[in-house]
Amino acid sequence: MEKKDKKVLLVDDMPTMLKKGVDIISERYEVETASSAGEALEKVQSFRPDIILMDMNMPDESGISCMEEIHAMPDFKDIPVILTVTDITIMSTARAYDQGACDFLKKPFIQRNVYRKIDMHLKLAEIGWHFEL
User: Fold this and answer.
1) Overall number of domains in the chain
2) Domain-embedded: residue 2
3) Are the CB atoms for 47 and 32 separated by under 8 Å?
4) Is residue 101 part of a domain?
């Protein structure tokens, strides 16, 4: 079994998505969950994740605005955030990238896609690569 030395924060307001995500992610990484943007902001500081998977559309606050708040924190300005979506428009995609999202992950989750996206962005973060416009 692989050592779980990387931490993933999974943020989604749907309990079924959190459960499915935890079932997949916890096989390879240490995982914490948050069911709202407010809870995510607290967990980022206490859990200190290496990467965040965040629902783009939550009732209390959008994933994009929560991501902006996280990136405004000095210790987390470069943390990779993958936005999870069921559907997305071209304009939403452009806005999310402009605001700091590193990628998107389609829901419902497919295990190999989740691992590929997380692994790729963790490796990019390790070497200090950040895309800037």
Assistant:
1) 1
2) no
3) yes
4) yes
Please list the residues that pair with 81 across neighbouring strands.
Answer: 52
**pLDDT of residue 90 exceeding 90:** no
**132 within domain boundaries:** no
Could you count the other beta carbons within 10 Å of the beta carbon of residue 132? Answer: 3
Q: Domain containing 67 — which CATH number?
A: 3.40.50.2300
Which residues have a Cβ under 8 Å from the Cβ of 35 and sit 6 or more positions away? 11, 12, 13, 15, 18
Q: Residue 84's domain spans which residues?
A: 7-126
**pLDDT band, residue 22 (cuts 50/70/90):** very high
Indicate whether 133 belongs to any domain. Answer: no
103-129 pLDDT tens trace: 999 999 999 999 999 999 999 999 987
Round to whole Å and give the CA distance between 57 and 131. 24
How far is it, in rounded angstroms, from Cα 35 to Cα 40? 7
Residues 74-111 as b or e (16 or more Cβ within 10 Å = b): eebeebbbbbbbeeeeeebeeebeebbbbbbbebebee
